[in-house]
Known about the structure:
The protein is of the alpha/beta class.
Amino acid sequence: MGDLKLPTIFQNGMVLQRRTPVCVWGTAPQGGLVTVRLAEQSAYAVAIDGAFRVYLPPMEAGSNLTLSVSAHGKTITIDDVAVGEVWIAGGQSNMEFLLRDDAEVAGEITGDCPELRCYEVPKIAYPGQENDRDYSKVGAWRKARGQEAKYFTAVGYYFAKKLHAELHVPVGIVNCTWGGTSASAFLAESYLTGALKPYLDRAAEVQAKLDPATEQDRYRKLQHTMDNMPFDNSMSNLAPIKPDPEMMASMADMGALFLSRYSPFRPCGLYKTMLKPTAPYTVSGVIWYQGESDAAYADTYEQLMQAMIACWRNLWKAELPFLIVQLATFEEMMEPLDFVPIRAAQEQLAKSCEKVWLACAMDAGMRYDIHPKHKRPIGERLALQALSKVYGKAILADSPAPEGAKREGDTFVIRFSLAGDGLVCRGEMPETLEVTVDGTVLSAFSASVYGNELRINSPEIADAKSVTVAFCQHPFCVDNIYNSAGLPMLPFVYTLEA
């Protein structure tokens, strides 16, 4: 017989999803009747093979509720339960990035909003790691009350704050992130087939060279070193980082163990140790900020994300909406990185996958810091996507994108959808534009915006057979064209043939 037990996420202060059946699951004595109660609602199940799963009937939003689960004479009581909107915040370090490191943290920790809550899924990379690290400060529901707000994911905090302001219900964020990870860490092995199989092959090649007898101990020592290494997340953005000898030594060790059987960076590992234990906690959808660690394999990133989304939806047995952050402008932190192909793959993903939408962060980046310090616009743009696509609000939530072009004498005119009341240039003229006429890049031209049009003028355009305009097609660049909702233009390449 198994004891009555609930997953860690079921704790005081939790937020449950409104207006949909809510899953409650756990272990219980074999064959025993399990009774679950929340406010006036009840659900019942019989434990089979020591496990149970029930669904509470849909409820409207509320607070200060009590959830009780009883079986075999034992009752687990969870207090201060709220019912509202629940979202998973997934990805790597830019979603993991805490509000304490955000540029606007001082103004955010003076408030008191107990209806904004965040749960951090414990970072467990392998079975048993819960005994190798101190998890006393994670795995709990926190409220946005003073200093507690500092431990929210910053993007998740600003996302939740805007949803709460618009929907007037409690909002819960489930933070399931790990810095530096590929999306391949968060899906099941059966999805890494065909063009995605190299993710498994690379890991197998590394693991074959490691001694199983010492591998775990080596990784534990490395993790201890990394956990205790000070990290300054308040970069000046004036120059790339020059690692000190201690950091270089740890990075060399990490490189050797990067895809080991105990590393969080190995494919499929966090799916087993972080995601599956969280599913099927009932949620509205997923906000996702990741891609930096897959930049080397941008050609398969769209396919990788399609597989991951399918995997998550299968795990939850629901068509979860995914709101994706398009990576911000950035050039180099310790080494040059090119996110141009990943950004294009993310935009294509939003076109090729149902219920996937994109929030542009091109104007939020920093040249020498991969972690933008102003997360508010990113979180709020994700919230606009949710309000529009998931909650049905009639608002402009998408960045402008080209929909057609024409030539008027020596002027090349590109027409944009989703401009709202008209495009706005923040500056003297649009920046980061490259104009190519019949294969030659123009050294001089003028550009302006008017209504929903970007207008580029040059004498060379008048008789050209081919004109190509590229916007924000560099790792670091300035995106200063917006629609009337303040959303920056998506990077693009547009060609018009005579």
